[in-house]
Fold this protein.
Amino acid sequence: MSSWLDYTINGLIVGNVYALVAVGLALIFGVSRLINFAQGSIYLVGAYIGWGAVVQLHTPLPLTIIMVAAAAALVGLIIERFGLRPLQNSVRIAPLLATIGISFVLDQLVMLTFSPNPRALPSQLPDVRFQVGGGTIGPLDLLIAGVGITSALLLFVFLRYSKLGWAVRAASQDRDAAMQMGVDVNRVNQAVFGIAAALGGVSGMLVGMYYNQIDTAMSLQATLKGVVAEVVGGAGNVPGAVIGSLLLGLVESYGVAVFGTSYRNLFAFLLLVVVLVLRPNGLFASARQAPPEPLTGTFIAPSRPVRIPRWALAAAAAIFAILPLFPVSFYVLQTLINAWLLGMLALSLTLVAGTMGQVSLGHAALLAIGAYTSALLSLTLNVPVGLAVIGGGLMSAALGTLLISPSFRLRGHYVSIATLAIGEIVSLVILNWESVTRGPIGISGIPPLSLFGYDLVSPTSIYWFSLAVMLVLALLQGRLLTSHLGRSFRAIRDDDIAARAYGLSLNRYKSLAFIFGGFAAGVSGGIAAHLYSYINHETFNTQQSILALTVVILGGLGNVVGAILGSVALVGLPEVFRIAAEYRILIYGIVLLLLVRFRPQGLLGTI
Amino acid sequence: MSNIDRRSLVKGSLAAMMAGAAFSRAALAQSSEPILLGVSGPLTGPNAQYGTQWKQGFDLALDEIMAAGGINGRKLAYQFEDSQSDPRQSVAIAQKFVSDPRIVMELGDFSSPASMAASPIYQRGGLVQFGFTNSHPDFTKGGDFMWSTSVSQADEQPLLAAYAVKRLGLKKLAVLHLNTDWGRTSRDYFVKAAKEYGAEIAVTEGYIAEERDFRSTLVRVRDASPDGLILISYYSDGALIARQARQVGLKQVMCAASSVYSPKFIELGGEAVEDVHLGTRYFPQDPRPEVKKFIAGFKAKYGGQEPDAFNAYSYDAMNMAAAVVKIGGTDRRAIRDAFAKVKDVSSVIFGQATFDVESRRVKGAMNAELVVRKGQFALWDGKPT
């Protein structure tokens, strides 16, 4: 029984750690309606500045905190001024992508400066521990709790009682109205970014001290957990973010208590999905908060799509089709195979995110479902590989749609967060459902692709096969978009209330889009499984979901040709920059930022 | 605008790639060119630290090989391609290496998904894929071009179990393991061996690589009341677990797999890793000449930095590659056959390394039984903690 006290205390302690990130995220969301994916990177920067101060300069703790806060705030101001302000009048998705690009750049800069080896960040507090329950609490635990709760309180007071705080709230409720009332919205944004970044930096440092360890991979996890905590609490709500964080910590801790360690994150993401389904705006969304935006015109850039004449498309397809007849290296073919596989995933995503307006951040899960289904069908049931791949597509279509269906009633950012969670859940189920998926060991010895009894093992034949599959899917999708069904999809995207009033059943159409999209992604995953011959739960990760989203936005939302062009570009670019070794992700991040800045509607525009 | 973008992008990248291939063919003609090994590994992304450590080990080994006259008078060099340990990139790299005639052998990749996804391409392309961190039991089953100096967990874990159960006398164990293919395989071999030696396994807990908070896990461990904790971890998570175990009041004896053997383990773990027992395949005070030479060379080259296990693996791998190339020459098939012929290659991990032709791995890992004492790794003196 006493253990439950320990689990509770542990849950609250780690919840405190999450709160440090979540509060900063909430503040920014409150004002800019922006999920700042760079918050984790500022946290990383803060940790390394803290390391420099403590280990190199031997500063005392209060001074360390001030230095870290000031330096991180400066980074935040720079991000706001040069990364996000130019995108103010751009589409909503642009700043979101920009924060992803910024996080790549910051993470890589830290990694290049400090090397990826983890470092010890010693705590500067005395190492005394107080007995509580079966465990102990130290001064740093208390300091973290203090910083979390105090900063939330201060922010609350600031927002409620100070003049700048009023301006912040006004700007978050209605930006244009606030501007007309004389609020300097830019100054407000700057203030908020500075405060949030200072908080983020200090939290990175404190968490680093707490674990006595910092490394360059810590930023993504921090962002993920922070986002979950924030959304559970009610996006944009500062006290909500603290309570959401504590709740997340408790649920994880109790989850470990009852089911064991390997289920830990599963419960975190399940909590998120349950909260979103029951209370779509989070637990503590205030009644007076502006309703979450529909996607009407927010994610979708108004643009005139570039129409490429049919003969040009046919010529391009023909050129790619006969490419292997020329003396090109297998490396080029393999790179293009990767592009075609990513193209199928991008087709899937551009349909649901671009045409249907359901932005998905967990699309890699569909790949995983297709890959595992196809691999297991061919390995354990001896289904011919060609059929198994189709089976993978069908399973992705069915299971993917079923899993995502609870998010159909969500809107705006919440859809992306829910899909992010579903993506993580699929990966964790694969890790834990050992009797079927073989758990962490993964599946090896997957037979190669074959068609009518002939093995496709040469890069040339795999190239033709994947190109043909992708082209067929692309043609089908192109046909779909010009049909009545496609127009209904876009009607729902552009104004779901009007579409519903017109008699369209939203859930049914969303399901149709996910079924088609799930099939394309599942086939891509299936082909990848047979190409790799070994897969495990890490093969299809969040990184790929983000890559797919980048592709789709680069090409132009809803744009079939754009999705393929984007895939070729984003698979090709890192390969072209291969020569730059450690710098290539940095370059990739910068290229992403420039694209978002100068062509937010995508290369070919939104359809 | 966008048409131009696309065309120039695609054409530009294709032209660059083809130019590269043409150049490499021309370069091959001159035998004064170095013999080139391909390396596929992470330089960016979440596993970037290991790629950095690999390079240190490789470079040290290459310095020594060059000082000894190279490979029959020719230079040996490597071309490191960053895969981020992502299977999609490692397969592209595999095609690149296979179709580049200068590359005579490949080393890597780091993680199992990235390595094993590329195996079919290396196998079909007839290029040796020499994995030196690939302990997945199926890695060398990918074909006769897959060879590995990574110690099979089937060899290593029983040694750790013997240390914990027979030598330290632990009877009731809690096993915490990284929930990856490596951690899981290791755990299974460990548990099997420990049971054979008569120990009881009270609880096993698998955690994912990104995990930082282990307090609740440790309460579960405490409630199972074991008399020893076994960590199947890397040094960074191992250090975290040790710290938090002490913080939640666990005072049991801790034993760790050799993968924690790194100066970083002590740096990150601080006082909490004092008295942690570990088996390791090499340690600095080992009087063997190979080890002494490695450590002296490493410290001299990298400003006094202590090498760790991953440095040793890559150093050994490069030396092994050199020995193989010396016999096999530059013909890829001959190089594969040379793996069966190399005998007693001087090695930090194995002493004298020879491949077992059946498993295509090196057999006979040795374990030194170490303990952390006063912030240093030391040979265990047989006294209970």
